[in-house]
Amino acid sequence: MGRFVNPDNSAFEAAVSAKIYVDKTGLISYTNRVINTIDAYICNSRPRRFGKSITADMLTAYYSRGCDSKELFSGYAICKEHSFEKNLNKYDVIHFDVQWCIIDAGGADSVVSYINNGILNELRDEYGDVIPHDVQTAYGAMSYIREATGNRFVVIIDEWDALIRDEAFDIKAQEQYINFLRGMFKGTEPSRYIALAFLTGILPVKKLKTQSALNNFDEFTMLSAAQLSEYIGFTDEDVRGLCSHYDVDYEKVKQWYDGYVLGDYQVYNPKAVVSVLTRRDFVSYWSQTGSYDAIVPLINMDFDGLKGAIIEMISGAQVKVDVTTFQNDIVSFAGRDDVITYLIHLGYLGYNSLTQTAFVPNEELRQELVRATRQKKWDEFINFQNESHALLESTLDMDEQAVAAGIERIHTEYASTIEYNNENSLSSVLTIAYLSSMQFYFKPIRELPTGRGFADFIYIPKPEYREEYPALVVELKWNKSADTALNQIRNRNYTQSLEQYGGNILLVGINYDKKSKAHTCRIEMID
C-alpha cells in the first residue's frame, strides 16, 4: 500500500460516509466489461464538482490489491453484478491526482519527474527483484513486472488535464507530460501491462500535436457521455428520491439546478443539489467551484456572434454550435463556437446533441453568466435589458400595440446580432425581448406539452413573485395572425399544464408578417 501504488480505500470510505452519497458504483459494471480489452482506455471528462475525484477513488477502492473492499461495497449496485468478486481488489493500481502532484512537486516543470519517481520507487519496494537497476521510468518497470509475474495494472489519473488547463503556455512542461503519457499508454507494450486506464478531467483528449499520445482512449464527455451518462452527476431519479427523503421541493430544485442533457438522462450538478438539500437555501453555488474567474475573459473575446449568442442563451434560447472545431485546450480558440464548446465542458452551458445546440441549463447558471456579463458592463446586455423592461411592463399592462412595437423594434435594431428568417428565429427574438423577465421568472420553457399540443413558450414566475406577476403562455405565428396564435392557445388547452399553478395567466399571441415586416399582438387574461 502506497501513495501511488495500491492505495487503500480510505478516500472512497470517506465519500460513502458523507451525509449524502448517491450510489454510482454501477459504473464499475462497465469498466469490468471492458477491462483487459482494447476498450479499456477511458477518458471521462466532466465539470468541477461533478464527482470526478469520487469516481477515481471508487475505482481505486474496488480494484486495488492494497485493501479489502468487499464490505465497503456491500449494499451498493455493483455487489449485485456477477463480475463483482471476480475483479474486486485483484489488480495493482496506480492512482494519482495531477493537480495535487503539481503543488507537491513545487511547479509544473518538476511534476513529471515527481510522478515518475514516486511510482517507480513504490514499484521497486513491491517488485524490486524483477526491476533492473538501470530502469528509469515507471512504465518501463511496469513492463518488467508484467513479464516476470503476469500481473497487469489499472491506472487511474484524476485531473489528467491540469497541466493542459493551468499551465496552458508552458509548452515544455506539457511536452514532458504528454511524452510520459505516451510511454505509459501508447503502443504494443503498454497493451500488455495495462488492464484498465481511467482518466478524469474537465477537458477531453487534446487534439493535434498530442492526439497521438491518447487517441486510443474512448472519450465520454459533456457532449456525449454514452454508456456513462447516468453516472455523471445526479439523475432526475436520484434527485426525486433525495428531495423526498429530505423534504425539499423537487420542482424548485429542478428549476434551479437541472438542465444538462446526457443521452436519455436529465443531469444535475451534485455539488449544487447536496448544498441545497443540506442548507435549504436556493442560491447559486457554482462560483464556489473555482472556475468562475476563467469565464469572464472567455465571454469577452472579440469573436463575431459570441456576445449575441451569450445573450440569447441567458434569455432562454438555444443556439447552434459546431463543437468539432474545439482543440481541447484553452489557447487555440478560433471563433465563437470554440468558446461555447469550452463553456459546455466547464458546465456553464448544456448541449443537446440531437439539435446540436447549446443553452443555459438552469437558473443557477443563468445567474452566474449574468454576473459574468456585468463584470465588463456589456453595452449590448444593458441595452437589451432596458428595451426588455419596457416590453415586459407593456405586456403586464396588456398594451397590445406597445408589445407589438417593442418586439418589432428589437427585431429590427438587433438584426445584426441574430439572423431572422423563419419562425425559429422569431423565437430567439422573443427570448431576448423578454430578457428582463428573468429577474421575476424562471427561464422560459420551450414547447411544454400542454393539452393537445405544445405551447411555444411558458414563463412561470418565481415563487416570491407569484402574487404580483402572472404566468405567461406565448404562442408565435409566422405569416398568419395574432388572433390565430391566441385561438390556438385556447383551442388546444395550452393552459392545462398550469392547473397546479393557481395564479393569473396571460395568454400572448404574436405574429410576424414577413412581407410587411409588421408584428402584431393579442393578449388575454385568465383568472
Summarize the structure.
This protein has helices at residues 10-16, 27-34, 52-63, 70-73, 84-87, 98-105, 108-127, 138-149, 162-166, 171-185, 188-193, 211-214, 236-246, 250-257, 270-279, 292-299, 306-315, 336-346, 363-375, 379-396, 400-413, 423-433, 482-491, and strands at residues 41-45, 92-97, 153-158, 194-201, 218-220, 234-235, 260-262, 265-268, 319-320, 350-352, 357-359, 445-450, 453-459, 471-478, 505-512, 519-526.
Walk me through the structure:
With 527 residues, the chain is of the alpha/beta class. It is 43% helix and 16% strand. It is built from 23 helices and 16 strands. Helix 7 packs parallel to helix 10. The chain is elongated, with a radius of gyration of 26 Å. It starts with 9 loop residues before the first helix and ends with a strand.
Mean pLDDT: 88
| Shape assignment | elongated
Q: What is the helix tally?
A: 23
Strand content: 15-25%
Oligomer state of the chains in this structure: single chain
N-C termini distance:
69 Å
Strand order of the largest sheet: 2-3-4-1-5
Structural class: alpha/beta
Unreliable stretches: 448-454
Classify the helix fraction into a percent range: 40-55%
Q: Tell me about the biggest sheet? A: 5 strands, parallel
Radius of gyration of CA atoms, rounded to a whole number = 26 Å
